[in-house]
Design goal:
With about 450 residues, the chain is an alpha/beta fold. It contains six helices and 39 strands.
Length: about 450
């Protein structure tokens, strides 16, 4: 009997030792990198699940990460004091080719003119790139054939080419990043789909704030896009949703949609560009709930090759609200209960204002006080059958105009609410701002843009 008990004890002890050893072999380790040491050497000595913490300092190296499930972060969490510069200016600073990698808290610098990238993800998924400064490179960040990654809270400014570029990548989230003062800000090219771009800032880029080419089914929501040559440019890109963005003071176009179908464009504020929205050879899109105001040439322009687009519940207040090349589009939905863009009780058509206070919706009669004008609004190549007018008791707080103390309801109800000063500014800018491409030249312009 004693022999049986001893054997049982020995078996339990062996099992415990095996469990302990196997557990210790799988335990993640923490590696601390000091100034003068190599981040790459630390990476080379890691296993899946390990953590590398980098002390503040300057590190000159090019880092390749091939270990799965690895975190590399600065100790301070402050990119300004933990700087990684390219040792070889012809190679990407961080080259990630594994899944579930986290890079956090670095300032990353490479040569601006060597066509290399601050952080490059190649065939990666489930990575998190956050709180990094990827400025003053040739290209801030580049994702190729990568999916389901999180790119958040990064600065990608003053890069020679783009802030960030995605190619053949899907399901990624880009949020709260800054991509400003680059050639283009944020670029999706060649079969990028199902990406969500939210809360980003793209300003002062020499070309486009956001540029989609051959990329479909993406969501561009609640971004700030200002003072670029062009705010948003889509070409050959279908089924994209563009909503809730502030698109302000871009030079040529707030938004240019070219050869792109089935777009949903809703709830955007597009002010003070040469032209608010331009549709070129684009069909079956819906534009609703947008504010297009104080644009210097027109609020909305559609070339003759645009068909079956629907525009309703938009607020237009420009010297020229609409330029449209055919009558094959729809300018209202059916009348139905619902709070419209100026607080009226019904959805129908659009609100047609002018900076001088003489727009159709500002002067039309509404004897039954339902917020719909008593007559249709007819213009060259379009008819709005249910144009909106102001109501005395709007059902929602009026939406503010960007850079204006006047809200939408008071502006639409009071024809004198636009100040003389602002009228003078608009006239001055119209006289001194270069005119955008007209429809006869736009096909050639599209080809030039695709080559940029």
């Amino acid at each position: 009997m004693w022999g049986i008990k001893i054997n049982r004890f020995v078996n339990l002890l062996v099992a415990f030792l095996i469990f302990t050893l196997s557990s210790s072999n799988g335990t993640a380790i923490e590696i601390l990198v000091q100034p003068g040491e190599s981040i790459q050497a630390a990476v080379n000595n890691t296993s899946s699940g390990d953590l590398i913490i980098v002390k503040p300092g300057n590190y000159s190296e090019n880092i390749i990460i091939g270990t799965q499930n690895l975190t590399v972060r600065s100790e301070s969490g402050n990119p300004e004091d933990t700087i990684v510069s390219a040792n070889n200016p012809n190679i990407n600073v961080f080259h990630i080719r594994a899944n579930n990698i986290t890079i956090n808290g670095f300032k990353v610098r490479s040569a601006q003119y060597a066509e290399v990238t601050g952080i490059y993800l190649a065939g990666c998924s489930q990575c998190t790139i956050s709180n990094n400064d990827l400025s003053e490179n040739y290209l801030g960040m580049y994702l190729s054939n990568s999916k389901n990654n999180m790119i958040t809270d990064n600065k990608m400014n003053l890069n020679e080419r783009y802030g960030i570029q995605l190619m053949h990548s899907e399901g990624n989230i880009l949020s709260n990043n800054s991509a400003s003062s680059n050639h283009h800000g944020i670029v999706l090219g060649n079969n990028c789909s199902d990406n969500n771009l939210t809360g980003n800032t793209a300003s002062l880029n020499a070309g486009y704030g956001f540029y989609f080419i051959n990329s479909s089914s993406n969501n561009l929501n609640n971004n700030t896009i200002s003072k670029n040559d062009m705010g948003i440019y889509l070409t050959n890109s279908n089924l994209n949703t563009i909503s809730g963005n502030n698109i302000l003071e871009n030079i040529r176009y707030g938004m240019w949609i070219s050869h792109s179908n089935y777009s949903i464009i809703s709830g955007n504020t597009i002010n003070k560009s040469n032209l608010g929205i331009r549709l070129n050879s684009s069909d079956n899109s819906t534009l609703s709930g947008n504010i297009l105001a104080f644009n210097y040439i027109s609020g909305l322009s559609m070339c003759p090759a645009c068909d079956n687009n629907t525009m309703f519940d938009n607020y237009l207040n420009n010297v020229f609200n609409v330029e449209v090349g055919n009558r094959r589009n729809t300018w209202n939905t059916e009348m139905k209960a619902g709070v419209n863009i100026v607080g009226g009780p019904y959805l129908g058509g659009n609100f047609w204002a002018s900076p001088a206070g003489t727009g159709f919706s500002q002067t039309a009669q509404d004897r039954d006080e339902n917020g719909i004008a008593d007559i249709k609004y007819n213009e060259t190549n379009f008819t709005d059958n249910l144009p909106l007018v102001p109501v005395s008791n709007p059902q929602q707080k009026a939406l503010p105009l960007a850079n204006s103390s006047t809200d939408l309801t008071s502006l639409s109800a009071d024809s004198t609410s636009l100040s003389t000063d602002l009228t003078d500014v608009i006239a001055s800018k119209m006289a001194n701002t270069p005119v955008a491409q007209n429809s006869s030249k736009e096909s050639n312009a599209t080809e030039r843009v695709n080559n940029q």
